[in-house]
Amino acid sequence: MRDPSIRRSVALFRAFLREQTDPEHCYRLLARDAAQQVARYAGPLRGRVVVDVGGGSGHVTEEFRRHGAQAHLFEPDTGELHSRGRPPAGAVLADGYLLPLADGVADIAFSSNVLEHVADPYTFLSELVRVTRPGGLIYVSYTNWLSPWGGHEWAPWHYLGAERARARYRRRTGRAAKHTLGENLFPLHIGPVLRHVRSRADVTVVSARSRYWPFLTEAVTRVPGLREVATWNLLLILRRSP
Ligand SMILES: C[S@@+](CC[C@H](N)C(=O)[O-])C[C@H]1O[C@@H](n2cnc3c(N)ncnc32)[C@H](O)[C@@H]1O
C-alpha cells in the first residue's frame, strides 16, 4: 500500500478497530507496513542487521526476516515475548536501556510504540543510537500523550485525566487497565522530543512525520500545539552520524 494514502490509512484504522478480536491480522498488517516504511528509507532489507527493541512477541522481527534481513528481537517482558506462544528464534530478554550489543553493530535500529512506555525516553534513544553503525538508520515511533489514542485502552478519556479514565475503563469492562500512568505509560509530547533529536550531534533527522496519516504527514508535525493532538503517532527516521 502506498504511504501516505487514504487506502492505507483506512486499512490500518480498520485493523486497529479489530485489534481485540483479531490481533494477529492487526499486528501482521502493522509489521508489513513498518517494514515497507523502513525499506523506503534504508533500501533493500536483505542481509541487513536489524535490532527490534521492545518488539513484543516479534511480529516485526518476523516480517524483517521474511524480507531477508538478519533481524534480532530484544524484549524485557517474558509475558509479551510469549504472548503468541513461541517467540522468534534467538529472541533476547533484554531492556532497551542497556542492550547486550557492541557499539555500531546494527544497520537498522527499530523501535515501534515503546518510547511512551519508558520513564527515560532519551536514555532509551541514546541506546538505539549507540548500537547503530555510522550511516545506519534509526526508526522510532510512539503515540504521544495528547494524541486521541494517547491514553491507550482508556483513550480518549485521558483528556479528562488519567485516573478518571482508568477508573472508567475498569467500570465499563470489569477488568483492570493494562496501563498505569507513571508506571508503564508516560505523558510524552512531540515538541520536546523533536527539540532533543534536532540538538543531538550523533544523528540527523531524516524525517519527523505522522506514522499513520494519509496526507500532510510532515507538515502536521511542524505546527506547535496542533501537532500534539493531530499527529496521533510520531515517526522519527534518524540517520546515525559518521
Ligand atoms: C505497545 S508494546 C509495542 C510492541 C511492538 N514493538 C509493536 O509495535 O507492536 C510496548 C513494548 O515495549 C516494551 N518495553 C517496555 N519497556 C521497555 C524497555 N525499557 N526496553 C525495551 N522494551 C520495553 C514492552 O514490554 C512491550 O513489549
TrEMBL record:
SUPFAM superfamilies: S-adenosyl-L-methionine-dependent methyltransferases. GO terms for biological process: methylation. The keyword Lipoprotein does not apply. Gene3D superfamilies: Vaccinia Virus protein VP39 (3.40.50.150). Keywords: Methyltransferase, Transferase. GO terms for molecular function: S-adenosylmethionine-dependent methyltransferase activity. It comes from the Bacteria. Residues 51-140 form the Methyltransferase type domain. This is Class I SAM-dependent methyltransferase. It comes from Streptomyces botrytidirepellens.
